[in-house]
Amino acid sequence: MLDLSPTRAAGLERLQAFAPEAGRAYATGRNADDSENGYPAVSVLSPWLRHRLVTEAEVLDAVLARHAPDAAAKFVSEVHWRTYFKGFMELRPSLWAGYGRDVRRQLDRVQAESGLRSEWEAACKGETGYEAFDHWARELVETGYVHNHARMWFASLWTHTLGLPWELGADFFIRHLLDGDAASNTLSWRWVVGLHTEGRTYLARNGNITRYTNGRFEPDDRLAGRAEPAGGMPNPPPGAPPQGDDWSDADGVLIHEDDLWADHVLPRMEGAPTAVLLSPEGRSPLRVAPKVLGWTRAAAEDAMRERGIAARWLDGPEEAAAWARTESLAKVVTPYAPAGPAADALRAAERSGLPLVRALRSYDARAWPKATAGFFKLKKAIPALTAHLPQRGAA
Ligand SMILES: Cc1cc2nc3c(=O)[nH]c(=O)nc-3n(C[C@H](O)[C@H](O)[C@H](O)COP(=O)(O)OP(=O)(O)OC[C@H]3O[C@@H](n4cnc5c(N)ncnc54)[C@H](O)[C@@H]3O)c2cc1C
């Protein structure tokens, strides 16, 4: 049974237990979807990393303290996929807005077209008759976690075999994943249907599924043998990377679910009025799974408890603005939130009058400008980027 407790202590414990395996063992074993044994070859750190209850820098530091860069190269590169996707979308925030519009359009179709509705319902309930697919659908809903390879296979079956719109699959994922993330999720689905790397689709193969699930799933000759690229919004050209604001004279702090530990902000703001604004329900137009809402809330509570902060819990963007007025705050600093529901909620709070400034992490400031095109450019910069990790001398 996976322990996905929404506490920083549980995340750090998992990191400590996994760090010895993050070298060559990870590189050779990571493809195996060994859910029956609790995924021994992968870290299962994504729920903590996604909310930065444990940060990328902490994970990379712990791993590089134990392994030579060569030995840990695969794991370090995978962590940078998260960084890359966030940067890629932050340079093109209209991808998140466009996805939001397209999901709504597809959900309207679900309402209007009974055939599509019953296929969509069967897929979400794990009742399609495709054994592996149905297993992952139920696993997702029950646990909130699915192995990376299974996510790829699932997305391939959803789109190429079942012929369902990819946006509905991305929405199903983000409503149930504990690590549900605007950038990693949307862009991974776009990658499967040939929108991220234009025209290049990902197609699940029987042999691959059988091999990496240890023979749990037999080859199924109904799987699509071809994958046509989907239509959809092409990648816009990259915009300028964000700079972050000067927050040296901030007098209040606003925490959100994209950066709960906020170790670039909170230690310098001790004693300042602090509030928490969470918006995980903004991940989907439909109801986000209670398990996801509960995890996010409990993780935020744990972060505040660990820091000894008696934070004010805000009910929405308007209440954030009202809180700042009541506290007479002139400048409220918040960790920079990349394109996604938290950034949407922060902008709404600003529109209601919250005087907000954004503190950009040096980790993001260094990496995001490299996310202009494919992963390779950022990957090439990994030695330089990891040289700047906190334990290696920089903040
Ligand atoms: C269709 C699809 C949807 C996805 N949706 C999400 C999502 O909503 N949120 C999310 O966090 N990840 C998403 N991923 C990426 C990836 O599957 C998960 O991050 C990974 O499975 C998490 O498991 P882990 O922590 O055991 O990973 P490990 O293999 O232990 O890797 C360590 C860390 O590296 C990062 N990482 C690894 N692989 C990837 C990847 N392919 N893309 C981005 N980051 C990666 C994660 O932070 C992960 O925790 C998606 C992938 C696909 C194919």
Verbal overview:
- Keywords: FAD, Flavoprotein, Lyase.
- InterPro entries: Crypto/Photolyase_FAD-like_sf, Cryptochr/Photolyase_FAD-bd, Cryptochrome/DNA_photolyase_1.
- The chain has 395 residues and is mainly alpha-helical.
- It has three domains: 8-90 and 368-392, Serine Threonine Protein Phosphatase 5, Tetratricopeptide repeat, CATH 1.25.40; 116-212, Orthogonal Bundle (DNA Cyclobutane Dipyrimidine Photolyase, subunit A, domain 3), CATH 1.10.579.10; 252-360, HUPs (Rossmann fold).
- Helix content is 49%, strand content 5%.
- The protein has 18 helices and five strands.
- It has a five-stranded parallel beta sheet.
- The structure holds flavin-adenine dinucleotide.
- Flavin-adenine dinucleotide is lined by residues 30, 42-46, 49-50, 78-79, 81-82, 85, 147-148, 151-152, 155, 173-174, 177, 179-181, 184-185, 188-189, 192.
